[in-house]
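Escalated from tier 1: ketopantoate holo job.
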Amino acid sequence: MEILIFGAGSLGSLVGGLCAREHSVTLVGRDPHIAAVRESGLAVEGVVEFTTHPEARTTVPERADLAFVTVKSFDTPAAGRALADCSPSMTCSLQNGLGNEESLAAQLDTVLAGTCTYGARRPAPGRVECTGIGEIALGAPDGGPSAAAERAVEALQSAGIDAVHDDGMPKRLWRKLAVNAGINPTTALAGVENGALADDPLHDVASEAAREVARVAQVQGVELAESEAVAALESVVEATARNTSSMAQDVGAGTKTEIDAINGAVVDRADGRVPVNRTLAALIRARERGYAD
Ligand SMILES: NC(=O)C1=CN([C@@H]2O[C@H](COP(=O)(O)OP(=O)(O)OC[C@H]3O[C@@H](n4cnc5c(N)ncnc54)[C@H](OP(=O)(O)O)[C@@H]3O)[C@@H](O)[C@H]2O)C=CC1
Ligand SMILES: CC(C)(CO)C(=O)C(=O)O
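Tier 2 regenerated the structure:
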């Protein structure tokens, strides 16, 4: 299969590197990473270790059977516009947050929703570290069976990736949103690792954010119980206790965060009060504005 990764950063390089063990893979990203991969290949390190030689470019190729979108959520509209030039047979977001699939579907046919619990970081150009083996779940964005998702899952599995087809993606996306809405801004604002959310008062802040997400999901017709949202949050806090969340890393580095697609998306879709998500979003946006000072 011709697989295209749009956004060869941490996650995209890892997924692309793993896929390249079985498929023809093109990484689309930016220099100096792309130049380094072209020169010496992509070194995958950490939990799995190998070097692979995918095609590496800064623009999209002419065609692709399957495209994975792994840019940060604020770059999704640009990714959709760029991918429209090669019209992939199917395109799947592996990003965090809500709204990525709608944004891609405005430009592309056959868009799939995906979640990914692999962990990745990019220590240097040409290298990607797998910080944790997880699972990729794919399916139709509105739920129900999807032949395209089945084909994409088979492609991932044949490359040795733990992948499943989920016909209940809306619930899976909202449950992941509850986890990110609780953990990401709370750790970013408090300047702590994920494990610090096991205890009050931060546990209280993060779990109330997750409960609000469940209530908004229910209004949207997704049966996510508040207790399930909090249990998901607590289990990720425990499993990733030593992680610095992506938003804490972004705030630490003074770079743009995914707040709009996470807590911002909850506030935008709420028809009732979501004071914790609203407050967390306002505080993170204030930090982002402060970078310029
Ligand atoms: N890292 C992880 O472990 C996980 C991440 N995720 C999610 O996956 C998504 C990606 O995260 P992550 O990999 O960490 O982010 P990164 O910032 O590491 O990767 C995104 C990459 O896309 C590049 N990019 C953006 N726009 C373009 C463009 N128009 N053309 C070419 N390249 C482009 C960026 O380049 P530049 O930096 O120069 O802008 C960057 O290298 C996020 O939604 C995240 O929440 C989900 C699960 C795990
Ligand atoms: C699961 C979690 C919270 C792990 O850190 C994550 O997805 C992130 O940091 O963005």
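Residues 96, 179-180, 183-184, 194, 236, 240, 243, 245-246 surround ketopantoate (ligand 2) (CB under 6 Å).
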